[in-house]
């Protein structure tokens, strides 16, 4: 029995549709797998805040538009997580190609406004290199910002000298030039892996 031309064409179109669908799915999966960090596109709100920088000036997220931004919550008295993370981020950004070094900015948000004055913040972030902006604010502002990105922080009981620890997340959120949340950098990523993601994101935004 011969097969009608209509059926032959239908079978061919179905096969082509299947091939195209496979290519599309493969392409999307491949793009996701290219990131070393976790892809959070569409899962988190855009970058938005009004805080005080290390010069005592009021700043908003929009003032840093046009740059890839890394957002990290911490405090200057942090004994391990913060210095380790900032050192790693600085190593990652220092190794960026010359044309991209000014396009990436780290925003270190102190959740310890009681102790972290603008002067203290400035000395702290400057120690870890250029391209790091120290920010803080009143506790309600900081609570609202942390909640926006599904995290929190807390203060432990002070010791006899008035010193206390602050619990906070070690997550680093990466936003593209338009302020859209794109990646979550895990603590186990190396500076090289972070740098690869930053280069890919910065170059994608300029294409």
Automatic annotation (TrEMBL):
Pfam families: SCO1-SenC. Residues 40-203 form the Thioredoxin domain. Keywords: Copper. The keyword Magnesium does not apply. It comes from the Bacteria. PANTHER family: ELECTRON TRANSPORT PROTIN SCO1/SENC FAMILY MEMBER, LINALOOL DEHYDRATASE_ISOMERASE DOMAIN-CONTAINING PROTEIN. Belongs to the SCO1/2 family. This is SCO family protein.
């Amino acid at each position: 029995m011969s097969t009608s031309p209509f059926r032959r064409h239908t079978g061919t179109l179905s096969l082509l549709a299947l091939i195209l669908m496979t290519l599309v799915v493969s392409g999307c999966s491949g793009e996701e797998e290219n990131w070393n960090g976790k892809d959070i596109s569409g899962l988190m709100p855009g970058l938005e805040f009004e805080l005080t920088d290390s010069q005592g000036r009021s700043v908003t997220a929009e003032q840093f538009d046009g740059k890839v931004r890394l957002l990290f919550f911490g405090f200057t008295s942090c004994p391990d997580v913060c210095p380790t993370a900032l050192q790693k981020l600085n190593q990652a950004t220092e190794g960026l190609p010359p044309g991209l070094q000014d396009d990436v900015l780290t925003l270190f948000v102190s959740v310890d406004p009681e102790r972290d004055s603008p002067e203290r913040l400035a000395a702290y972030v400057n120690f870890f290199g250029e391209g790091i902006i120290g920010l803080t604010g009143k506790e309600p502002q900081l609570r609202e910002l942390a909640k926006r990105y599904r995290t929190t922080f807390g203060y432990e009981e002070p010791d006899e000298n008035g010193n206390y620890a602050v619990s906070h997340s070690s997550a680093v959120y990466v936003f593209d030039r338009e302020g859209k949340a794109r990646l979550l950098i895990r603590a186990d990523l190396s500076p090289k892996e972070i740098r690869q993601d930053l280069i890919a994101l910065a170059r994608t935004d300029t294409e």
